[in-house]
Amino acid sequence: MAADRMLQFVEREQHYPDKRSADDRARDFREIAERYAAPDADEQAARCSQCGVPYCSVHCPLHNHIPDWLRLTAEGRLREAYELSNATSTMPEICGRICPQDRLCEGNCVIEFSGHGAVTIGSVEKYITDTAWAEGWVEPLHPGKVTGQSVGIIGAGPAGLTAAEYLRVAGHEVHVYDRHDRAGGLLTYGIPGFKLEKDVVMRRVDRLAEGGIHFHLGFEVGGDATLDALRQKHDALLIATGVYKAREIKVPGNEAEGVIAALDYLVASNRKGFGDAVPAFDDGRLDAAGKHVVVIGGGDTAMDCVRTAVRQGAKSVKCLYRRDRENMPGSLREVSNAEEEGVDFVWLSAPESFTADKSVKQVAVAGMRLGAPDASGRRSPEVDPGRTFDLPADMVIKALGFDPEELPNLFGAPDLSVTRWGTLRVDHQTMMTSLPGVFAAGDIVRGASLVVWGIRDGRDVSDQMAKWLKAKAKSEKKAA
């Protein structure tokens, strides 16, 4: 019976795809683990307990039908598993690679709580869709019945690409504008290849272009055209730019040469991976080779930076984080990978100043301790008097998170309303901004930048835009 294939978590141990050795993977930017072979994926999927209330789905921002496609995988019905996985996510193989499963679906798996180890959901998801691409099951994008309406999307990251797909399927003409020369946003330029190889992203972009979505790359809104000019050109606009403004750290020496923003560093590295000429990398400013590197921050971006520095041949790589391991926001799985590759984590520490003549030479570090919980429930870091030390540093990378850019000024749109935090002000029912027909993806509203949320935002806001466009067409027809 098919049911006999499930509930195997007692007899079968948790097993992730084998990782390449730390020495091997530190020499290149290939993904660190291969995908499952079919029997392994089937067996791991069969460990699912098929919960009546699946916490994995509840804690998935996309609310993927995880137990259902795990069961289909265990039963050998892989094409159906792919179709079900694809029903709630436009990029399941990307989510399988980069979602922080240890904080989301796998971290809330019931059998994880029972001590048997979570189902390896992300690895199975990656396996399902990689197989679908290999077998030709990923169908071309089929545009819907032509509506005669045009939509402009500003930003070709996860939210913009997802919205573009849904709106094209609804029959609209879709134009995507992005300031970079390749689409994909953080998927292309922010996330290193060892977590997400770039051909995985490019084949998704190619599929959208082949489906009739128009990409305008190297396009600066506010430079090449104002927001108002785009409003005149399209029936509706979606702002899906993400949050890219680096948070600063206010300590002496912050302006020294060699103190750089995380995204500048990661973009340069990814561009070199594409074979681009990158002057700031080629002259050594954004290349960690032979340097003592100190990364400040404890999130996933910091993990990307430390592991990139290892691959570039840094002399040493240290990560300063003001809380301890248990209270860091980044993936503990990524911390483990980084430690295997030679990264040294300096917990409960924060920079006091950067010593430099012209270029940074040293970081003065203050020891920290955890005090009372803050509003989020996490214990607040505070200075631990008397514990200070210095670290050598030829490069300091600031990975402290991101804030929204000043979009009204950037886009030449002073009437575009923002909150006191700089995020776009929207009607949370319709996702429309203060400008009629101009919508915003949730990552610009919340100030968040997690890729999986961007995919959900693109899905949700495209639904609201489709409703508004339908009503607009009906109103114009009635007026005529």
TrEMBL record:
* InterPro entries per the UniProt record, alphabetical: DPD_II, FAD/NAD-bd_sf, FAD/NAD-binding_dom, GltD-like, Helical_ferredxn
Enumerate the spans annotated as Dihydroprymidine dehydrogenase domain.
25-136
Source organism's superkingdom?
Answer: Bacteria
The record's annotation in Pfam families points to: Fer4_20, Pyr_redox_2
Check the record and name the SUPFAM superfamilies matching this protein: alpha-helical ferredoxin (SSF46548), Nucleotide-binding domain (SSF51971)
The answer to whether UniProt assigns keyword RNA-binding to this entry is no
Reply yes or no: does the keyword Iron-sulfur apply: yes
Query: Which residue range or ranges hold the FAD/NAD(P)-binding domain?
Result: 151-453
Q: Which GO terms describe its molecular function?
A: 4 iron, 4 sulfur cluster binding; metal ion binding; oxidoreductase activity
The alphabetical list of record keywords is:
4Fe-4S, Iron, Iron-sulfur, Metal-binding, Oxidoreductase
Gene3D superfamilies linked = Alpha-helical ferredoxin (1.10.1060.10), FAD/NAD(P)-binding domain (3.50.50.60)
UniProt name for this protein:
Dihydropyrimidine dehydrogenase
